[in-house]
Design brief:
The chain is α+β, with helices and mostly antiparallel strands. 19% of the residues lie in helices and 40% in strands. Strands 1, 2, 3, 4, 7, 10, 11, 12, 13 and 14 form a ten-stranded mixed beta sheet that branches. It has a five-stranded mixed beta sheet with strand order 15-17-18-19-16.
Protein backbone atom coordinates (compact mmCIF):
# COMPACT_ATOMS: atom_id res chain seq x y z
CA UNK A 1 0.00 0.00 0.00
CA UNK A 2 1.33 3.46 -0.96
CA UNK A 3 2.18 5.76 1.94
CA UNK A 4 1.28 9.40 1.29
CA UNK A 5 2.43 12.53 3.14
CA UNK A 6 0.20 13.70 6.00
CA UNK A 7 0.19 16.86 8.09
CA UNK A 8 -0.45 20.61 8.00
CA UNK A 9 1.36 23.22 5.91
CA UNK A 10 1.38 26.83 7.07
CA UNK A 11 1.15 28.88 3.87
CA UNK A 12 1.42 32.66 3.47
CA UNK A 13 -1.24 33.38 0.87
CA UNK A 14 -0.56 36.35 -1.43
CA UNK A 15 -3.23 38.72 -2.72
CA UNK A 16 -4.91 38.03 -6.05
CA UNK A 17 -5.30 34.26 -5.75
CA UNK A 18 -8.07 32.13 -4.27
CA UNK A 19 -7.61 29.63 -1.46
CA UNK A 20 -8.42 26.93 -4.03
CA UNK A 21 -5.53 28.22 -6.19
CA UNK A 22 -3.19 27.75 -3.22
CA UNK A 23 -4.41 24.19 -2.69
CA UNK A 24 -3.93 23.40 -6.39
CA UNK A 25 -0.35 24.69 -6.25
CA UNK A 26 0.47 22.76 -3.07
CA UNK A 27 -0.76 19.53 -4.69
CA UNK A 28 2.15 19.83 -7.12
CA UNK A 29 4.80 20.28 -4.43
CA UNK A 30 7.01 17.26 -3.60
CA UNK A 31 5.99 17.56 0.06
CA UNK A 32 2.34 16.81 -0.85
CA UNK A 33 2.52 14.93 -4.13
CA UNK A 34 0.06 12.06 -4.40
CA UNK A 35 -1.87 13.02 -1.26
CA UNK A 36 -5.30 14.53 -0.85
CA UNK A 37 -5.03 18.28 -0.15
CA UNK A 38 -7.51 20.80 1.26
CA UNK A 39 -7.58 23.90 3.45
CA UNK A 40 -9.09 24.95 6.77
CA UNK A 41 -10.76 28.32 6.27
CA UNK A 42 -11.16 30.38 3.09
CA UNK A 43 -9.36 33.66 2.56
CA UNK A 44 -10.92 36.01 -0.01
CA UNK A 45 -8.80 36.61 -3.14
CA UNK A 46 -7.94 40.20 -2.09
CA UNK A 47 -6.82 39.03 1.37
CA UNK A 48 -3.37 37.84 2.38
CA UNK A 49 -2.00 35.87 5.29
CA UNK A 50 -2.06 32.52 6.96
CA UNK A 51 -3.82 29.62 5.26
CA UNK A 52 -3.71 26.18 6.86
CA UNK A 53 -3.31 23.65 4.06
CA UNK A 54 -4.21 20.10 5.07
CA UNK A 55 -2.33 17.22 3.48
CA UNK A 56 -3.26 13.53 3.44
CA UNK A 57 -4.97 12.25 6.61
CA UNK A 58 -5.12 15.82 7.95
CA UNK A 59 -8.03 16.51 5.57
CA UNK A 60 -10.16 14.14 7.66
CA UNK A 61 -9.73 16.48 10.64
CA UNK A 62 -10.55 19.73 8.81
CA UNK A 63 -13.46 20.69 11.07
CA UNK A 64 -11.24 20.86 14.16
CA UNK A 65 -8.89 23.32 12.45
CA UNK A 66 -11.68 25.32 10.82
CA UNK A 67 -13.29 25.93 14.22
CA UNK A 68 -10.20 27.68 15.62
CA UNK A 69 -10.41 31.44 16.35
CA UNK A 70 -8.71 33.81 13.94
CA UNK A 71 -6.68 37.04 14.15
CA UNK A 72 -6.43 39.72 11.44
CA UNK A 73 -4.96 43.08 10.60
CA UNK A 74 -7.33 45.14 8.46
CA UNK A 75 -7.29 48.51 6.74
CA UNK A 76 -10.66 50.28 6.63
CA UNK A 77 -11.41 53.08 4.19
CA UNK A 78 -14.05 55.36 5.67
CA UNK A 79 -16.27 57.69 3.68
CA UNK A 80 -16.91 55.22 0.86
CA UNK A 81 -18.79 51.97 0.28
CA UNK A 82 -18.09 48.90 -1.85
CA UNK A 83 -20.84 46.55 -3.03
CA UNK A 84 -18.55 43.61 -2.13
CA UNK A 85 -17.17 45.16 1.06
CA UNK A 86 -13.64 45.09 -0.37
CA UNK A 87 -11.56 46.81 -3.08
CA UNK A 88 -12.72 44.41 -5.82
CA UNK A 89 -16.25 45.81 -5.88
CA UNK A 90 -17.94 48.94 -7.20
CA UNK A 91 -16.85 51.77 -4.91
CA UNK A 92 -18.95 54.85 -4.28
CA UNK A 93 -17.85 57.88 -2.29
CA UNK A 94 -20.32 58.70 0.48
CA UNK A 95 -19.57 62.40 0.72
CA UNK A 96 -19.45 62.11 4.51
CA UNK A 97 -16.34 62.08 6.67
CA UNK A 98 -15.86 60.03 9.84
CA UNK A 99 -14.14 61.26 12.97
CA UNK A 100 -11.67 59.24 15.00
CA UNK A 101 -14.04 59.35 17.98
CA UNK A 102 -16.92 57.92 15.95
CA UNK A 103 -14.74 55.14 14.48
CA UNK A 104 -13.45 54.09 17.90
CA UNK A 105 -16.96 54.13 19.36
CA UNK A 106 -18.32 52.06 16.48
CA UNK A 107 -15.54 49.47 16.82
CA UNK A 108 -16.06 49.19 20.59
CA UNK A 109 -19.76 48.53 19.99
CA UNK A 110 -18.97 45.42 17.95
CA UNK A 111 -16.92 43.63 20.62
CA UNK A 112 -18.58 40.59 22.21
CA UNK A 113 -21.18 38.19 20.83
CA UNK A 114 -23.01 39.79 17.92
CA UNK A 115 -25.41 38.79 15.17
CA UNK A 116 -23.62 39.27 11.86
CA UNK A 117 -25.27 39.18 8.47
CA UNK A 118 -23.29 37.09 5.98
CA UNK A 119 -22.04 39.23 3.05
CA UNK A 120 -23.78 38.66 -0.26
CA UNK A 121 -20.46 37.94 -1.97
CA UNK A 122 -19.45 35.03 0.26
CA UNK A 123 -18.95 31.28 -0.21
CA UNK A 124 -21.76 30.38 2.20
CA UNK A 125 -24.37 28.11 0.60
CA UNK A 126 -28.07 29.04 0.62
CA UNK A 127 -30.45 26.64 -1.06
CA UNK A 128 -27.49 24.51 -2.13
CA UNK A 129 -25.77 27.33 -4.01
CA UNK A 130 -22.96 29.66 -2.95
CA UNK A 131 -24.06 33.23 -2.34
CA UNK A 132 -21.46 34.81 -4.62
CA UNK A 133 -22.94 32.93 -7.59
CA UNK A 134 -26.38 34.34 -6.86
CA UNK A 135 -24.81 37.79 -6.52
CA UNK A 136 -23.11 37.50 -9.90
CA UNK A 137 -26.51 36.91 -11.51
CA UNK A 138 -27.82 40.08 -9.90
CA UNK A 139 -30.28 38.28 -7.64
CA UNK A 140 -31.56 40.18 -4.61
CA UNK A 141 -32.30 38.25 -1.44
CA UNK A 142 -31.71 38.40 2.29
CA UNK A 143 -28.55 36.66 3.45
CA UNK A 144 -28.47 34.58 6.66
CA UNK A 145 -27.49 35.98 10.06
CA UNK A 146 -24.95 34.18 12.24
CA UNK A 147 -23.96 34.53 15.87
CA UNK A 148 -20.23 35.29 16.10
CA UNK A 149 -17.83 36.44 18.80
CA UNK A 150 -15.47 39.39 18.40
CA UNK A 151 -12.88 39.13 21.17
CA UNK A 152 -10.90 42.17 20.10
CA UNK A 153 -11.50 45.02 17.65
CA UNK A 154 -8.90 47.71 18.25
CA UNK A 155 -8.41 50.84 16.17
CA UNK A 156 -4.61 50.95 16.21
CA UNK A 157 -4.44 54.15 14.15
CA UNK A 158 -6.70 56.56 12.29
CA UNK A 159 -5.71 59.01 9.55
CA UNK A 160 -8.55 61.50 9.43
CA UNK A 161 -7.25 63.25 6.30
CA UNK A 162 -7.04 59.96 4.37
CA UNK A 163 -10.14 58.54 6.12
CA UNK A 164 -8.23 55.34 6.82
CA UNK A 165 -8.23 53.21 9.97
CA UNK A 166 -5.95 50.34 10.89
CA UNK A 167 -7.70 47.59 12.84
CA UNK A 168 -6.51 44.64 14.92
CA UNK A 169 -9.15 41.91 15.11
CA UNK A 170 -9.51 38.67 17.06
CA UNK A 171 -12.70 36.74 16.42
CA UNK A 172 -14.43 33.39 16.25
CA UNK A 173 -14.46 31.17 13.20
CA UNK A 174 -17.06 32.30 10.67
CA UNK A 175 -16.68 36.03 11.37
CA UNK A 176 -16.45 38.26 8.28
CA UNK A 177 -14.01 41.10 8.93
CA UNK A 178 -15.14 43.03 5.86
CA UNK A 179 -18.64 43.01 7.33
CA UNK A 180 -17.26 44.34 10.62
CA UNK A 181 -15.66 47.16 8.65
CA UNK A 182 -18.92 47.87 6.82
CA UNK A 183 -20.78 47.91 10.14
CA UNK A 184 -18.25 50.40 11.56
CA UNK A 185 -18.89 52.59 8.53
CA UNK A 186 -22.65 52.46 8.92
CA UNK A 187 -22.40 53.26 12.64
CA UNK A 188 -20.37 56.40 11.84
CA UNK A 189 -22.75 57.41 9.04
CA UNK A 190 -19.84 57.67 6.60
CA UNK A 191 -19.77 54.14 5.20
CA UNK A 192 -16.63 52.02 4.93
CA UNK A 193 -15.07 49.10 3.10
CA UNK A 194 -12.13 46.81 3.81
CA UNK A 195 -9.22 48.04 1.71
CA UNK A 196 -6.73 45.37 2.89
CA UNK A 197 -6.92 42.28 5.06
CA UNK A 198 -4.23 40.00 6.45
CA UNK A 199 -4.85 36.90 8.57
CA UNK A 200 -2.10 36.79 11.16
CA UNK A 201 -3.13 33.75 13.21
CA UNK A 202 -5.36 30.67 13.29
CA UNK A 203 -5.54 29.43 16.86
CA UNK A 204 -1.91 29.13 18.01
CA UNK A 205 -0.60 28.99 14.42
CA UNK A 206 1.15 32.24 13.42
CA UNK A 207 1.77 33.81 10.03
CA UNK A 208 5.45 34.35 10.81
CA UNK A 209 5.84 30.55 11.13
CA UNK A 210 4.60 29.93 7.57
CA UNK A 211 6.95 27.53 5.78
CA UNK A 212 5.90 25.52 2.74
CA UNK A 213 8.90 23.23 3.20
CA UNK A 214 7.76 22.07 6.64
CA UNK A 215 4.87 19.65 7.06
CA UNK A 216 3.68 19.82 10.68
CA UNK A 217 2.82 16.27 11.85
CA UNK A 218 -0.88 15.82 12.54
CA UNK A 219 -0.39 14.81 16.19
CA UNK A 220 1.54 18.06 16.72
CA UNK A 221 -0.84 20.21 14.69
CA UNK A 222 -3.75 19.05 16.86
CA UNK A 223 -1.90 19.79 20.09
CA UNK A 224 -4.54 22.43 20.94
CA UNK A 225 -6.68 19.42 21.97
CA UNK A 226 -5.97 17.62 25.27
CA UNK A 227 -4.23 14.26 24.86
CA UNK A 228 -5.19 10.79 26.08
CA UNK A 229 -2.44 8.21 25.56
CA UNK A 230 -3.71 4.70 24.83
CA UNK A 231 -2.27 1.30 25.67
CA UNK A 232 -2.26 -1.47 23.05
CA UNK A 233 -5.71 -2.82 23.96
CA UNK A 234 -7.26 0.66 23.97
CA UNK A 235 -5.66 1.45 20.63
CA UNK A 236 -7.34 -1.59 19.08
CA UNK A 237 -10.69 -0.41 20.43
CA UNK A 238 -10.25 3.16 19.24
CA UNK A 239 -9.16 2.17 15.73
CA UNK A 240 -12.46 0.33 15.28
CA UNK A 241 -14.45 3.30 16.59
CA UNK A 242 -15.17 1.89 20.04
CA UNK A 243 -15.11 4.04 23.16
CA UNK A 244 -12.33 4.02 25.75
CA UNK A 245 -12.30 5.21 29.34
CA UNK A 246 -12.08 8.96 29.81
CA UNK A 247 -8.72 9.30 31.55
CA UNK A 248 -8.43 13.10 31.06
CA UNK A 249 -9.36 15.90 33.42
CA UNK A 250 -9.85 18.59 30.76
CA UNK A 251 -13.39 19.69 29.94
CA UNK A 252 -12.68 20.26 26.24
CA UNK A 253 -15.33 18.71 23.96
CA UNK A 254 -12.72 16.85 21.92
CA UNK A 255 -9.60 14.88 22.86
CA UNK A 256 -6.62 13.52 20.90
CA UNK A 257 -6.18 9.77 21.28
CA UNK A 258 -2.55 8.82 20.75
CA UNK A 259 -0.41 5.68 20.84
CA UNK A 260 3.39 5.60 20.76
CA UNK A 261 3.38 9.33 20.03
CA UNK A 262 1.19 9.02 16.93
CA UNK A 263 -2.39 10.17 16.41
CA UNK A 264 -4.99 7.39 16.47
CA UNK A 265 -8.21 9.42 16.54
CA UNK A 266 -10.02 12.46 17.84
CA UNK A 267 -12.75 11.55 20.30
CA UNK A 268 -15.63 13.29 22.02
CA UNK A 269 -17.05 12.83 25.51
CA UNK A 270 -20.02 10.46 25.62
CA UNK A 271 -21.50 8.96 28.78
CA UNK A 272 -18.28 9.32 30.72
CA UNK A 273 -16.17 7.74 27.98
CA UNK A 274 -14.22 8.95 24.95
CA UNK A 275 -15.90 7.96 21.69
CA UNK A 276 -13.73 8.22 18.55
CA UNK A 277 -15.38 10.44 15.93
CA UNK A 278 -12.54 10.71 13.39
CA UNK A 279 -10.08 7.81 13.16
CA UNK A 280 -6.77 7.29 11.35
CA UNK A 281 -7.03 3.95 9.54
CA UNK A 282 -4.44 1.40 10.69
Amino acid sequence: MAVFPSGVLLVAKPAGVTSHDVVARVRKLPIARGAKVGHAGTLDPFATGLLLVLVGQATRFARFFTALPKAYQATARLGARSDTGDPTGRIEEAGVRATEESVRAAAAGLVGEIDQRVPLTSAVKVGGERLYRKARRGEEFETPVRRVRVTRLDVTSFDEAAQQAELSVECSSGTYVRQLVADIGEATGAGAYCRALERTAVGSFRLEAADEAKLVPLVEALSFLPERALDADEERLARTGRAVENGVEANAPNVRLTARGELVAVAEHRAGQLKPVTVIPS
